[in-house]
Amino acid sequence: MIGSVLQDLQYSLRLLARKRSFTITALLSLAVAIGFNTAIFSIVNIVLLEPLPYAESQKLAILWTAFPAAGVSRAPASGPELDELHRRTRVFEGIAGIWISNTSLVGEGEPEQVKMAQITTNFFPVLGTQPALGRNFTADEEGNGSKVVILSDALWHRRFASDPSIIGKAIRTARGPLTVIGVMPGGLEMLFPPDASIPTDVLVWTPFSSPLATRSRDVSFLRMIGRLRPGETFQHAQSELDSIARDLRTQFPEFASQQLGISAVELHSDLVKDVRAPLLSLFIGVILVLLIACANIANLLLTLASERSREIAMRVALGATRARILRQLLTESILLALLGGAAGLVLAAFLLKLLPRQWPHAVPRLAAIGLDLRTLLFTMGLCYLTGLIFGIVPAFGALNENLVGSLKGKERTFVPGRNSVRRLLVLVEVTFAFVLLTGAGLMLRTFVHLLNVDPGFRSNGVLGFTISLPGNRYLGDGKVIAFFDELEKRLSQIPGVQSAGSTSHIPLDDVSNWWSFFYPEGVPANQQQTQMADYQCVSASYFHTLQVPLLSGRYFDKTDDLSHPRVAIVDDLLARKTWPGQIALGKKLNVEAFNNGEINAGWAEVVGVIKHVNGQSLVQEGRPQIYLPYFQSPRGSLPMSFVVKGSAASTELLIRPVKEAVAGLDKDLPTARMESLDTMVAIAETRVRFITLLSGVLGLIATFLACVGIFGVTTYTVTQATNEIGVRMALGADRDDILHLVLRHTMIVVLFGIILGALCSVALAPGMSSLLFLVKPLDLLTFGAVVIVLAVVGLVACLLPATRASRMDPMVALRHE
């Protein structure tokens, strides 16, 4: 048996070596199809199939607070809410909280701003991980101002040279000296859904300094995770949370006015909810490309088998069984698939280095993507299955030939029914190509619309960066205001700078935004927590720097400080919703503001209305927006961002003088996230750009393969029917008649493929609706363009062999054998 198999392999290799054109064409088709399938499966495997890198991660839930009256279902929680849940739950082993801020590291090397997580002391046990060096926080280190910290492995290696004696030592931060008690394991990421605003690259963790239970019930800022007890389900957990929320609404007026609700969602499922649809769509796309490649190679093998019909007939005549010949033919197909798979793995390795760079900010766990064992097994299985798919039909077709006719030689004609298998394969290719081109066309239209979106501000030539003032050195609102005012003046004086302004949140950054309740004057008490808006603290020149259009009223000025009544600027979205049909200027809003590091509510007069700014996404309108003058709402040690406008060509040239301006005021104050706003806008376009690019590539590959298939079948049909063409021309048919005959024979199949592809696309297109922007899934322009493209491709593909047939010498055609 082994000797027989080796003989089959040797013969297959000799055959592939002789048929070089066929082998190269087939291997290239397979390499591209299997390479893309392997690469996309690798991403799907890590992102969608692999569990999160935490102990028993399937038991982890993210808990969301809901405010139904305000139309909000995924909000953070307040400190008292977390405390009540922690004490009342019986379904969860524990519920923990986390909040992200920034801090500065000084003393060891250059000053550096890092993301710091303030957490409850049970956070890491609930998450399912623990320090690799040192210890975890203890319960008595939370809420009493303890100065302890745990470092990430990356920060420990980079800044502290992996020094194991760091445990027990103090490091200098903006919050003062903090004692290092542990180092987390390498590769640890904070894997939360994007709208939780918890970045993956947290570098230090510290316990909350003040008790969460004593904080205000109507100030929500915490993200909560919980771990189910053994045997508990998410359905049971949700029932318990509903009961707890009902009790909290009954017991506390604040929760009652908020109409508080709480929901629990599996962490992994919630993490990938935004990327599941595009990844599965791309995976379906690459499978369709593979099927088109299989149909193409099956057509080539049918042609090859037809050429070998006499050889196969001779083998049977000499005593070979059909099973023996079938095994030989399938060995050739599977060997070809394995060789194509090997080339595909090389392409996949290249794609896995390239693709993550094209979609870096939207897919979780990109660093873990690679050719692991599951991916290799997938590729091996794919190769074997592919070999069977494109080999089985030609193999049985070769065995079902009229063996006596093959030995004698037989004529081929255009008689209906002839070459039906080949025509069916072309039909499949055109159908799948139509589906892929439709998806690519819809994404291309979406991307064009995205490029034309007006975000409400101008990013051209604007540089942004963030700083956090150390609270131990800038005590009191007066010092904080004076520092930022002076820094803004120095930035404005840099040569080439047109203006500079400051804000609590730069549009389209990934920093957690500040959003909360507001209500207009005259609203009854039971309706005062039914509307929410994004809040921002900005300087007087912020709107000028980003060229945000003023619709009515005025911008802020230097007189809007703590010595004057509180004022606010709102966007047109809030003005329309709050005072429909009325003028917003002069109206009063109850808004939140900062005062000596605390958030308090008070009345503010609306002095201006601006155009809505797409602050979180280019494709979603988002919440209404309220802007407060920074001089009336200083943020203390919380991060503050600056925007500096120069010319488009000078953005990179501004980086050094900007850093020098900051260092001139405080040499130990680091800057962070220094990049142009054009880059932030490009990042916001990343997902749509990536899907458009890849779907376009797949569509072009599918169209090319379909073109090759149509050309190959038409050429083969013309070659086999050469005698008939000679007879027709001898009986009076002219060249136009022969041309029309060949074109009609092939284009009927192409047109049926277009019709079938259109029907499939109509059925599948609504599944892409979550990926589209300002484009309907059944977009007539896209469908019409795809029909024209495939009709032209089909016509071009069969025109060359048809033209050759029409120019054939009748005498040569009659003598053809």
**Helical content (DSSP H or I, runs of 4+):** 40-55%
Poorly predicted runs are: 403-417
| C-alpha-based Rg, rounded | 34 Å
Largest sheet, if any?
Answer: 8 strands, mixed
The share of residues in extended strands comes to 15-25%
| Mean pLDDT over all positions | 85
Which features would summarize this protein structure in a list?
single chain; 817 residues; alpha+beta; eight-stranded mixed β-sheet; six-stranded mixed barrel; 24 strands; elongated
Describe the structure.
49% of the residues lie in helices and 18% in strands. The chain has 817 residues and is α+β, with helices and mostly antiparallel strands. The protein folds into four domains: 19-50 and 290-410, no CATH class; 62-265, no CATH class; 411-456 and 681-817, no CATH class; 462-646, no CATH class. Helix 1 crosses helix 11 (322-358), helix 9 (273-307) packs antiparallel against helix 14 (420-451) and helix 22 runs antiparallel to helix 23. The radius of gyration is 34 Å and the shape is elongated.
Helices and strands in order, then pairings?
Elements: H1 2-18, H2 20-49, E1 60-67, E2 72-75, E3 77-78, H3 79-88, E4 92-106, E5 112-119, H4 123-127, E6 133-134, E7 148-151, H5 153-160, E8 170-173, E9 176-183, E10 204-207, E11 220-228, H6 234-251, H7 253-258, E12 261-266, H8 267-271, H9 273-307, H10 309-317, H11 322-358, H12 373-399, H13 403-408, H14 420-451, E13 462-467, H15 477-492, E14 499-503, E15 514-517, E16 519-520, E17 532-538, H16 542-546, E18 550-553, E19 567-571, H17 572-578, E20 588-595, E21 598-610, E22 625-629, E23 640-645, H18 651-665, E24 672-676, H19 677-684, H20 686-720, H21 722-730, H22 735-764, H23 780-806, H24 810-815
Parallel strand pairs: 5-10, 7-9, 17-22, 19-21
Antiparallel strand pairs: 1-2, 1-11, 1-12, 3-11, 4-5, 4-8, 4-11, 6-9, 7-10, 8-9, 13-23, 13-24, 14-23, 15-17, 16-20, 18-21, 19-22, 20-21
